[in-house]
Design goal:
Blueprint lengths: L8 E5 L5 E8 L3 E7 L2 E7 L7 E7 L3 E2 L3 H8 L11 E11 L4 E10 L2 E16 L5 E12 L18 E15 L2
Antiparallel strand pairs: 1-4, 1-11, 2-3, 2-11, 3-6, 4-5, 5-7, 7-8, 8-9, 9-10, 10-11
Length: 181
């Protein structure tokens, strides 16, 4: 599997070899990175890439920034309101090739009960058969969203000007998927 046209079939995201992360600016001067550690996803790739479909469900409570106090705040009503909205979902509406090894997946991203269209550019990193005989494919992509578009609006003003948490959040996807038998 060396090109996008070789990928026809259905796939399941391998959560032990996939990273779904984010980056936010903190205090306007540094970046805070985090991950979601629990998620599941599937992809069906048609012989015509336009017939492809991707679905992803992230358990919002699995947010991990390596700081327990910050993670607790992110889980609260100030940010993701996880008691009311336990999942973040993405359902594709279109998939199209943008090059020999690149594609764009457009779909509906739902965070905190608000759904907005998002287009994520991905690079196909290749495919291989692993030592257990499974066919694997890898993709990497990222997209910048405005968190307030999804109702995630909490912030704090800084004495020096600016705010504590950036409006723009980069979502990062490093995906390993296994072809279903």
């Amino acid at each position: 599997m060396s090109t996008l046209s070789d990928l026809t079939g259905s796939y399941t995201i391998d959560p032990t070899h996939t990273r779904i992360g984010f980056v936010a600016r903190h205090a306007m001067i540094t970046k805070v990175r985090g991950n979601f550690n629990e998620f599941e996803g599937t992809a069906t790739v048609g012989s015509d890439l336009a017939d492809s479909k991707v679905d992803l469900t992230i358990q919002a409570t699995s947010i991990d920034t390596r700081n327990e106090q910050r993670d607790g705040h992110l889980r609260s009503n100030d940010f993701l309101a996880m008691d009311e909205f336990p999942t973040i979902t993405f359902t594709s509406t279109s998939v199209k090739a943008t090059g020999d090894s690149s594609l764009e997946i457009t779909g509906d991203l739902t965070i905190k009960g608000t759904t907005k269209p998002v287009t994520v550019p991905f690079e196909f990193e290749g495919g291989a058969t692993d030592p257990f005989g499974y066919e694997r494919v890898g993709f990497e992509g990222s997209v910048v969203i405005n968190r307030s578009d999804f109702g995630v609006t909490w912030n704090a003003a800084l004495e020096t000007g600016g705010v504590l948490v950036s409006e723009k959040i980069t979502l990062e996807f490093e995906v390993s998927a296994v072809k279903n038998a």
